Amino acid sequence: MVEIVRKGELPQPEQVPDGLREAARAALRMGLREPRPVGFPLLFTADMQLIESAVAFLHEHAIQRAHTGETVRTYAEILYDWFDALEQSGISWNEVDTSDLIAYRNRMLKQLSQHTGRPYSVRTINHRVRGVLRFYRWAVRNTWLPSSPLAHRAADFRIARGAWRSHRYSDTVERCLFTVRQYESLPRPLNSAQVRELLARLPTPYDLMARWQLYTGLRISELLRLRLTDVLKNLSGGPQPEAAYRVIDVMRKGRKHGYVIVPASLLEETEIYIAQHRTAWQRRAARKRRIAPRSELFINHRGSRVPRSTYQQVIQRTAAASGFKATPHVLRATFACWMLAHLEQLAKRGAAINPLLIVKILMSHEHIDTTDRYLRAVSIDMPVLAEVLDKLLVGEDTP
């Protein structure tokens, strides 16, 4: 089975046996042009042979192209699953054919995920298939392979994506052969009663984190990147203490600089959390385990940063206990749909605004088509639709 080993720190000379201390000192003095950071993923085969091509691919994207940690983690997970599937089938990575990738895709269609125990979503399957295609194009381009059927230009998903934009129903080789047809799903925002129930059941600090997503539309990665200093300068002691909202600079997806508009009431709740919970947890952690102070805004009762997976699980479990489904992304979608609905009402009253463009900016979307999904979700008035369906079922005429 393929293994991922994270790169660690070099040991200090006093941490190694006497015979190795000089080598440890020499290693610390050694300078590298492109050093890999601590935690960099290294892929090994079952017999502990380094998969050099995969490591070189990750090195280019992490170091040379300076992609974010989330992007590198995604690439590492795709390559891990692909090489593990090849190893189980006894196929060498440099001898794969199109039939091997199709078999890999079909296996995900038929089997459950070992990680979640649920069927793979079409989005996940296509994401992994496209990641494999990207890796083989890179391998041919960088002479790791002389050629590969998976690197053929006809299977280039970027060309397919361009054709899709120019002609919505165009049919491409890559779209027909490798990926599964994917239907667009509309977001399903929470209603007011569900939001109140969820926030009432969530423990600290997850209730405050959920409020931040509901009031600002932050992505989960952007929420976890919030720093204490980002918020402290905008609390009640800062400039404009009577303002109903504050504008806070944040680092958006893809290292893009952006901002969010935060209500004063949310900042007041955040100030209470910092003064009561965060400070107490930080002091207790420093007293018991001498953990260095964290710069993140949101920490848990142990004084450590809140893990992404923990926050996701808490939201999902709490919503399930309340009788509905919710994820951090649903909270973000709820903000977008609510905001768009209110802006549409203002526009109908004569306000000179473009609701779709405003929500696009607030959500930090790259393309307006992404924001348009929320407009179509808002256009479905569930109470009115239910009333019409009820009349149809009893045979009454509808207007």
Reported for the largest beta sheet, the result is: 2 strands, antiparallel
C-alpha-based Rg, rounded? 25 Å
How many runs of DSSP E, i.e. beta strands?
4
Q: Please, how many domains?
A: 2
Output mean pLDDT. Answer: 83
CATH superfamily of the largest domain: Intergrase catalytic core
Query: Do you know the CATH architecture of the largest domain?
Result: Orthogonal Bundle
End-to-end CA span: 63 Å
Classified by CATH, the class of the largest domain is Mainly Alpha
Which structural category do the helix and sheet elements fall into?
mainly alpha
* Widest sheet, order of strands: 1-2
> Which segments are poorly predicted (pLDDT under 50) over 5 or more consecutive residues?
155-174
Strand percentage, roughly? 5-15%
Helix content: 40-55%
What's the CATH topology label of the largest domain?
hpI Integrase, Chain A
* Helix count, DSSP H or I runs of 4 or more residues: 17
Keywords:
single chain, 399 residues, mainly alpha, hpI Integrase, Chain A, 2 domains, 17 helices, 4 strands, globular
Description:
The chain has 399 residues and is mainly alpha-helical. The protein has two domains: 48-177; 186-399, hpI Integrase, Chain A (Orthogonal Bundle), CATH 1.10.443. Helix content is 54%, strand content 6%. It contains 17 helices and four strands. The protein has helices at 21-29, 52-64, 69-89, 98-110, 122-141, 157-166, 173-177, 192-201, 206-216, 220-224, 228-232, 264-288, 308-321, 328-348, 355-363, 368-378, 382-393; strands spanning 3-6, 41-44, 245-251, 257-263. A two-stranded antiparallel sheet has the order 1-2. Strand 3 (245-251) and strand 4 form a beta hairpin. It is globular and about 70 Å long. It starts with a strand and ends in a 6-residue tail after the last helix. The model is unreliable at 155-174 (pLDDT under 50).
